[in-house]
Each structure stands twice: as C-alpha cells, then as structure tokens.
Amino acid sequence: MSKHGKKYRAVKETAPTEEVTLEEAIAFLKNNPTAAFDETMELALRMGIDPRKSDNAIRSSVSLPHGTGKTVHIIVFAEGAAADAAREAGADEVGSDDLIEKVKGGWTGFDVAIATPDAMKEVRKLGRVLGPRGLMPNPKTGTVTEDTAAAIKLAQAGKVDFRMDRHGNINVSFGKVSFEADSLKQNAEVVLDAIRAAKPASAKGIYIKNVTVSSTMGVGVRTNIRD
Predict the structure, then answer these.
(1) Which residues does residue 210 pair with via DSSP β-bridges, in sequence order?
(2) CB-based contact 211:43 (threshold 8 Å)
(3) Are the CB atoms for 174 and 41 separated by under 8 Å?
(4) How far separated are the first and last CA of the chain, in Å rounded?
(5) Of 8, 59, 112, 200, which cross-links 4 as Cys (Cβ 3.0–4.6 Å)?
(6) How much is the pLDDT for 157?
(7) pLDDT of the residue at 73
(8) Between β-strands 59-63 and 159-163, what pairing exists: parallel, antiparallel or unpaired?
(9) Is 94 helix (H, G, I), strand (E, B) or coil?
C-alpha cells in the first residue's frame, strides 16, 4: 500500500515525466499543492564529485533575496558581551555550559546554532547531536563568530546553509509555495549560483548531475539544470 495520500497520487499522475525548466517545475508545484499548509520549496541536487574525498567537501551559505518565509529559531553559545548582544538581537536561547548540557541531552528545537570561537571548544563535543542534523556552527557558514548579533540578523533575513552529504547530495530550501513564482525562481537561482561558486578546486568532470524541485509533501519534478 502506498504511503502517500490520494491527493499526492493524483498530482503524481499529472507531473512531468521529462525534465523541465526551473520555471516550469516551480509553476507545476505552485499549481498542484498536496498539503493544507504552506509548504516549503526545496532543491535537491545530485553532485558529480566524490563525497569521500575531503578536498571535495562543499559547505557554505547564501542569503535569499526574498527570504525563506519561515520563522527561524536561533540559539547562541556564548558568554559575556557576545551573549548580551545575542539576546538583544533576538536569539531564542543564549547560554554556555547550561545550553551545551541541554543540547547534549538531545534537544534540537532550533534551526540555527551560532557560537563564538571560544565556545566552540566545548560545542565541538556536540558533534553527535548537531552534526547529522547540519546544525554544527561552522566558520564557512558564518555561524562561528564574535559578532553574534550580525550572524543572527543574517539568519533572520533568510540565510540558508548548504552542504554535500556523504552520498553526494545537497538539499536546500528556497522559500514557500505561497511566494510569487518569480521570487521563488530568483531565490533558487541564487542558491544554484552559490553552489557553483562553492565548487572545490579539485573537482573534475560533471559538477551538478541533476536538480529536482519539490515541496514538503509534494512530488519531485526533475529539471534540465546541470553543470
């Protein structure tokens, strides 16, 4: 028995079977919602480089011109002035040892984790909790910094992080189904440009094998984008 509902199956039957343009993929998903809530739009990229090679790692971030459309829950590992600045900038939770213990216990009720360089000495120990979820603060994504307020503002303004997983895939959200089609297209193009800019110097051959566009509960629509 299919794990998908009747609505999903009906949309799947009408979905393009051939590759389409980014514009067409977005239009199809906007015109064929499969959920009662405002779904998140996502890009799934299959990369053509070997993820097992450390010099092929891809990890960076980009600010979406039209934002993400969602409320971002942010925690900050910091003490002193950096912690005060984080609270003032609107972080949901700020702390040091106490916050580390909370996360160590398995709490992951946040979207972005920011840390000062000093705090990272202890935060690194949270690798098992934060690593698999892509939540570990990292200098490459601007989430390890003394300027916690600036990092919070970027996250709130629509900054998204991306990284290639161990299977050679990158998944990035780029807005909500309710966004205007042009806004979604611009957001998606900014993400794709950032991924191209993050191409490792050692990468050989095809860089982006294929790109699929989908919504949270919707079907995947393959595009003709590749590098």
Answers:
(1) 46
(2) yes
(3) yes
(4) 38
(5) 8
(6) 86
(7) 95
(8) antiparallel
(9) strand
Q: What distance in Å separates the CA atoms of residue 162 and residue 130, rounded to the nearest whole number?
A: 14
The per-residue pLDDT for 70 is 85
Residue 169, H or E segment: strand 169-176
> In the structure encoding, which two tokens stand for residue 107, read together?
């709490």
What strands lie across the sheet with 40-47, from one edge to the other?
169-176, 40-47, 208-215, 221-222
One-letter amino acid for residue 187 of the chain: N
pLDDT at 3: 67
Coil vs helix vs strand at 168: coil
Burial 145-160 (b: 16+ CB within 10 A, else e): bebbbebbebbbebbb
pLDDT of residue 20: 97
- Closest to 98 (Cα-Cα) out of 76, 66, 114, 113: 76
Longest dimension (CA), the chain: 57
Q: Which amino acid is at 23?
A: E
Are residues 218 and 34 in contact, defined by beta-carbon separation less than 8 angstroms? yes
Q: What is the pLDDT of residue 26?
A: 98
The secondary structure of 101-127 as a DSSP string is HHHHTT----SEEEE-TTTHHHHGGGH
Residues of the chain with pLDDT under 70: 1-3
How many whole angstroms separate alpha carbon 61 and alpha carbon 142? 8
pLDDT the model gives residue 1? 39
